């Protein structure tokens, strides 16, 4: 692996569900250490793209390389191994509601046998501290936490194994703007501290600019624009402009059903 | 002509759907089973499902067994008294309970209790992305969620049915002795004379299969559920209904296999 190999390299990715094309030839690179935010309307294929990279969905054609290794062609075992190197914060945190917070946070580490069960609670407390949570939440169950705290625990769980790659699926959805900004701040801190490569998908423009170095827009299964996250609001691309400014009139016609 | 064609087309599509469903269920079962034998093993998950199936179902199954044993005794008394064949009642009770009522009624009760709970639990995990989250945390969801539950069903139901057998006979005994004035000693002797180890064993084999089926249907429908709360609801219903029907169908097949000469 040379230093020029991108951490994630995607070439001509296609995926359809029945007659509905969700990904229609997506190509992009994410160099090591970069944070890419992907924006796009609901149903533009953002979640499917992340799930393809995670190996939870098999694409119809195209390649996905992580550190130069094609995961689409890899064996299921190898894919499982690679998946373990990606941390993911799910949209609704997706915490295991039958397990206490400490066990949620250390779940991956315990599964990989990187820590002993006896040390897990202490490890959880130190990871929780990184996301600004007190040790006292360790023994609570996810249903006892507020939405913002659940997101933090989800973030702690995603970073606990210190993954090289982090995915964030709409990290601020459902949070108030202040909590959203706090979560964004934590995400940036974690990504910087770990030196991870990150992909975040979001509809939240403020969040996109806070988290991302680079930004890209998906529309109808294609990547229609890519540029610096700071230029999101004045990209000069009519599709991106309409989306980021939330205009009703423009090249994007929402398929509304009456 | 057109309507005839569309009728045939619909019939064909339904048949294909059925075959596809049976195939995917069979593959799911095989994959789940294969994970039972390959490490890592999740003892905690196994134990909690085992406890739910075997221990917490005890009161319901015990009451069901007691009352059914009693009812069999009462009903056969009304029939047999006409022919002065009351002595056969103890035999009828022990035969009915060990061969059929124990496994079937306990199975149906557990399908309603545990099958539904498994489907709802896995279904909720599916629609809230918890199953995908497992995959991202180096844990195979089939191995973590499905395999221990299949094993727990397979092991717990025979134990439960063994207890149900005893309580079913006790139900018959209670009715015959307290209500119909049988001699306790004679009843027990008659029971022991008609008790066949083969009947009990086959009943327990049935129970193991039923336990497996109940867990399997709960896991299958829960694991593949989609569409939020409504999806979880219909997964739960489907799990209980199909488990109950399969259980009765397999009961017939096994009875035919073991007892019809």
TrEMBL record, chain A:
Coiled coil: none annotated. GO terms for molecular function: ATP binding. Residues 8-245 form the ABC transporter domain. Keywords: ATP-binding, Nucleotide-binding, Transport. The keyword Nucleotide-binding applies. InterPro entries: AAA+_ATPase, ABC_transporter-like_ATP-bd, ABC_transporter-like_CS, P-loop_NTPase. It comes from Acetobacter thailandicus. PANTHER family: PROTEIN TRIGALACTOSYLDIACYLGLYCEROL 3, CHLOROPLASTIC (PTHR43023). This is ATP-binding cassette domain-containing protein. Pfam families: ABC_tran.
Automatic annotation (TrEMBL), chain B:
It is found in: Cell inner membrane; Membrane. Pfam families: MlaE. The keyword Membrane applies. It is a multi-pass membrane protein. Keywords: Cell inner membrane, Cell membrane, Membrane, Transmembrane, Transmembrane helix, Transport. The chain crosses the membrane at residues 56-74, 150-180, 200-223, 235-254. It comes from the Bacteria. InterPro entries: ABC_MlaE_roteobac, Permease_MalE. Belongs to the MlaE permease family. Could be part of an ABC transporter complex. This is ABC transporter permease. It comes from Acetobacter thailandicus.
């Amino acid at each position: 692996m040379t230093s020029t190999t991108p951490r994630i390299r995607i070439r001509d990715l296609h995926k359809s569900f029945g007659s509905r094309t969700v990904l229609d030839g997506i190509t992009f690179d994410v160099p090591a250490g970069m944070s890419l935010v992907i924006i796009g309307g609901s149903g533009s294929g953002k979640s499917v793209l992340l799930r393809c990279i995670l190996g939870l969905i098999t694409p119809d054609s195209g390649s996905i390389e992580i550190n130069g290794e094609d995961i689409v062609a890899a064996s299921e075992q190898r894919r499982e191994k690679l998946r373990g190197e990606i941390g993911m914060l799910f949209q609704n945190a997706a915490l295991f509601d039958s397990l206490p917070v400490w066990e949620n946070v250390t779940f991956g580490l315990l599964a990989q046998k990187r820590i002993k069960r006896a040390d897990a609670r202490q490890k959880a407390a130190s990871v929780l501290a990184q996301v600004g949570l007190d040790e006292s939440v360790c023994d609570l169950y996810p249903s006892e936490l507020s939405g913002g705290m659940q997101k933090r625990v989800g973030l702690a769980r995603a970073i606990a194994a210190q993954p090289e790659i982090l995915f964030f699926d709409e990290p601020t959805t459902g949070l108030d703007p202040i909590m959203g900004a706090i979560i964004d701040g934590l995400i940036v801190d974690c990504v910087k501290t770990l030196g991870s490569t990150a992909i975040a998908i979001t509809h939240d423009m403020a969040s996109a600019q806070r988290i991302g170095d680079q930004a890209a827009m998906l529309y109808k299964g294609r990547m229609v624009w890519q540029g610096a996250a700071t230029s999101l609001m004045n990209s000069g691309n009519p599709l991106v402009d309409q989306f980021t400014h939330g205009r009703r009139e423009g090249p994007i016609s929402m398929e509304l059903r009456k | 002509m057109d309507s005839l064609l569309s009728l045939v087309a619909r019939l064909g599509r339904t048949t294909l759907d059925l075959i596809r469903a049976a195939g995917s269920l069979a593959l799911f079962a095989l994959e789940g089973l294969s994970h039972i034998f390959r490490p890592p093993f999740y003892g905690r998950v196994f134990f909690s499902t085992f406890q739910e199936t075997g221990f917490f179902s005890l009161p319901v199954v015990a009451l069901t067994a007691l009352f059914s044993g009693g009812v069999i005794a009462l009903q056969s008394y009304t029939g047999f008294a006409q022919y002065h064949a009351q002595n056969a009642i103890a035999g009828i009770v022990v035969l009915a309970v060990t061969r059929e009522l124990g496994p079937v009624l306990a199975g149906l009760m557990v399908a309603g209790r545990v099958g539904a709970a498994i489907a709802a639990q896995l279904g909720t995990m599916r629609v809230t992305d918890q199953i995908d989250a497992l995959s991202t945390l180096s844990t195979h969801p089939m191995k973590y969620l499905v395999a221990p539950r299949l094993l727990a069903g397979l092991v717990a139901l025979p134990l439960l049915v063994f207890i149900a057998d005893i309580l079913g006979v006790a139900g018959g005994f209670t009715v015959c002795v307290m209500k119909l004035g049988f001699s306790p000693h004679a009843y027990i002797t008659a029971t022991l004379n008609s008790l066949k180890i083969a009947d009990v064993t086959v009943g327990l084999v049935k129970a193991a299969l039923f336990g497996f089926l109940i867990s399997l249907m709960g896991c299958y429908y829960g694991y593949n559920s989609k569409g939020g709360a409504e999806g979880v609801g219909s997964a739960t219903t489907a799990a209980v209904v199909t488990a109950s029907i399969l259980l009765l169908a397999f009961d017939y097949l096994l009875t035919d296999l073991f007892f019809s000469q």
